[in-house]
Amino acid sequence: METITENQKVKMTGKNKKMFGLFDPSTLQVFIAVSALISLVLFVGCSGDELPVESDLSLDAKAYTEASAMNASSNGLVIQEFPSEENPGPPLYASGLSLGLTGFGATRTDGEWVAITFVRDPNCAPADYNLLSAPNIPAVFGCPLTIEGTVWLRDPSNPLNAVKAKHLGLGAVPVYFVQLSEFESAVMDGELTIVELNSLSSLLIGYASFQRDVIQFQQNERPGMHSIVSRGELQDGRSFEHIGVVVGTENVHTTIRFE
């Protein structure tokens, strides 16, 4: 299994120059998503992320991260690492479950599958807790994180009110995949517990050896933006790759592939 060191070794290749010569349908779909993400990064001044779906289509994640850090410093933002005494990390068990109830976040689906990423150990989620509801504070902070990262804050006394954030997987991030039709039936009543999720017949569980999230939280009139890239191995031995771009409450692009 790969570890977080893979996240640290991602480099931009010279193959980017070939990007505009690739126009087969699958590559074009990814190119459109990458173009949209680049435009969003330039618009909101957020740190960007690499989308390693095709080797010819990648962003320089390190450069965007360094630029973001400089912007944070010039704008008077305070940078915190998590987990730490000053910042416990995101108040969530999983991401990708929002139904638009908070004004930011959307269910990540490619039209066939839904991807749910557990940023904390799913075995620690209370059996009766509704994963679609408000954050379970402070209990959620007692569950082990599957990620680490950096947040940019205007007010360091309020670590939950971040301006932007970057998350990196710790090497085995649980990612749950459920068929969209079954997921929609399960959440029709507005509730979804970890027990119910584990009981779904189409459930596939994977562990991401590479996981990177870049988040720009909603600020004034600007919608939030979340890009995610993960790849790893399913419990049945197949590999998976998941790329998602969410703006506000809109699932702009999601790719889910099993091989």
Folded structure, characterized:
By secondary structure, this protein is of the alpha+beta class. It has one domain. It is 20% helix and 29% strand. The protein is built from 5 helices and 10 strands, in the order αααββββββααββββ. Strands 1, 2, 3, 4, 5, 6, 7, 8, 9 and 10 form a 10-stranded antiparallel sheet that branches. The N terminus is likely disordered.
Supply the helix-strand structural class.
Answer: alpha+beta
Round the mean pLDDT to the nearest integer and report it: 78
Along the chain, the helix and strand elements come as HHHEEEEEEHHEEEE
Number of domains: 1
Number of strands: 10
- Distance between the amino and carboxyl termini: 16 Å
Overall helicity? 10-25%
Poorly predicted spans? 1-64
Helix tally equals 5
Describe the protein's topology.
Elements: H1 5-9, H2 25-44, H3 61-74, E1 78-82, E2 94-95, E3 113-118, E4 147-153, E5 162-169, E6 173-179, H4 180-186, H5 194-199, E7 204-216, E8 225-234, E9 239-247, E10 250-258
Antiparallel strand pairs: 1-4, 2-3, 3-6, 4-5, 5-7, 6-7, 7-8, 8-9, 9-10
